[in-house]
Amino acid sequence: MPDYNTSDRRGVSKKFTQEIATEVGVQLADYNPDLRSRDAGRVGGRITQRLVEAGKSQMGENLR
């Protein structure tokens, strides 16, 4: 599982963001004027899913 604790100014690591983008088939660059909002949303949505899963997992571990 990626390291969620290492973050940039946006809150998640660039490496993690790039991994998610590759997973959903979106090309990311520092500046990409051709990036569609739909593709950006797919990446952001998947990042959110992963962070929620990690949080739930961590909460479950803390409840034991």
Commentary on this structure:
- By secondary structure, this protein is mostly helical.
- The protein has one domain (14-63).
- It contains 2 helices and no strands.
- Helix 1 (14-24) packs across helix 2 (37-63).
- The model has no long low-confidence stretch (mean pLDDT 83).
Question: What share of residues are in beta strands?
Answer: under 5%
Mean pLDDT: 83
Largest sheet: none
The SSE order reads HH
Using only CA atoms, what is the Rg? Answer: 13 Å
Number of discrete domains: 1
Helix content range of the residues, please?
55-70%
What's the helix count?
2
Structural classification = mainly alpha
Given the C-alpha coordinates, what overall shape results? elongated
| Distance from first to last alpha carbon | 21 Å
State the total count of DSSP E strands.
Answer: 0
Unreliable stretches: none
List keywords for this structure.
single chain; 64 residues; 2 helices; elongated
What's the helix and strand layout?
Layout lengths: L13 H11 L12 H27 L1
Report a brief summary of the structure:
With about 60 residues, the chain is mainly α. The protein has helices spanning about 15-25, 35-64. It has 2 helices and no strands.
